[in-house]
Amino acid sequence: MNERPAIAQLGHITLSTPNIEKSLWFFRDVLGMEEVARDGNKAYLRSYQEHEHHSLVLVDSNVAELEHVSLRTARPEDVELYARQLHNSGVKVVEIPKGTKKGQGDAIRFFMPHGGHPIELFYDIEKPKAPDAIQSKILSQSSTRRGLGVRRIDHVNLHTAMEEVGSAEGWLINNLGFKRREAMQIPDGPLVASWTSVTPQVHDIALVANPHNQVGAFHHVAFNLENFSDSLTAADILRDLDVQIDLGPGKHGIGAAMFLYVRDPGSGHRIELYSGGYLIFAPDHEPTVWNPENFAQGLTWYGEPTPMDPTALFSQTTQSTKKLV
Ligand SMILES: [Fe+2]
């Protein structure tokens, strides 16, 4: 048996919100996610192409924080194998028993030793059927397409201090098996950003230098739309609903995808509605590295330029929690 554990995918994200009803209005009623369960102070949501119990957990709180980024392992035994591997390398690991999150099995949580972000690893998750009223005749879908039609979680973008980006990327590559897909590098200087994945996507996790040099900062989570026209429709509808748009619609050079960055009005967390992009299948794919001469086209291929100054709305972040349980 292969004893090396592996990560299969980005599973879900847990965000606390000071106004859970407003957040539920945004994710469920506007973006079209299914509220699968409500349990105590938590609401569990998934998109119409997701069968797992949740890709988003909202926690009723007096703060808006990133509680954790949850990665699904490739096999059930990998959770315990990672617990041992992390413990042996000096990382403090907290074991989270089955049922702590509804529909989810045993998990472990830790802070990334570089970058400072809270990570959860799990494998077991229930796949409940949607209520009859929203069952789709497309058998591959968990429910009908509703609202703006987000179909799955896509990636997370984590900010940290400039001097931590390179070591955080190295930690993800060496410990969790991520691959560098694209990067922004100052020649003979620091790594500014890295787009990494364990899947054919250009990124499951992006690590970016924070203009305020803050570690453990959360920039956004992206949900995937089917195509560019869905992003344009989303912008049209969100404007009338007075949802704050930080940037876009536009197209990134990096990842070659369309972006639209908005804020959850209940929490202020930034959400990206993401469509298009390319996939990587070659085992010997070479990462694409951008330098200061072409950073601007990497960030925005067309559309509004991406502001880099620390005072821009787009530079604001929310913070990670300081506790794992
Ligand atoms: Fe993104």
Topology:
Blueprint: E1 7-17, H1 20-30, E2 34-39, E3 42-46, E4 56-60, E5 65-73, H2 78-88, E6 94-96, E7 107-111, E8 118-122, E9 152-160, H3 162-176, E10 179-185, E11 191-197, E12 205-209, E13 217-224, H4 228-240, E14 245-251, E15 257-263, E16 270-276, E17 288-290, H5 295-299, E18 318-320
The chain binds fe (ii) ion.
Q: What would you note in describing this structure?
A:
- The two termini are 33 Å apart.
- The protein has an 18-stranded mixed sheet that branches.
- The chain has five helices and 18 strands.
- The protein is globular and about 60 Å long.
- Helix content is 17%, strand content 34%.
- It has helices at 20-30, 78-88, 162-176, 228-240, 295-299; strands spanning 7-17, 34-39, 42-46, 56-60, 65-73, 94-96, 107-111, 118-122, 152-160, 179-185, 191-197, 205-209, 217-224, 245-251, 257-263, 270-276, 288-290, 318-320.
- It is an alpha/beta fold and 325 residues long.
- 48% of the residues are buried.
- It folds into two domains: 7-128, Roll (2,3-Dihydroxybiphenyl 1,2-Dioxygenase, domain 1), CATH 3.10.180.10; 152-320, 2,3-Dihydroxybiphenyl 1,2-Dioxygenase, domain 1 (Roll), CATH 3.10.180.10.
- The model has no long low-confidence stretch (mean pLDDT 96).
- Bound molecules: fe (ii) ion.
Jot down its keywords.
17% helix, 325 residues, alpha/beta, 5 helices, 2,3-Dihydroxybiphenyl 1,2-Dioxygenase, domain 1
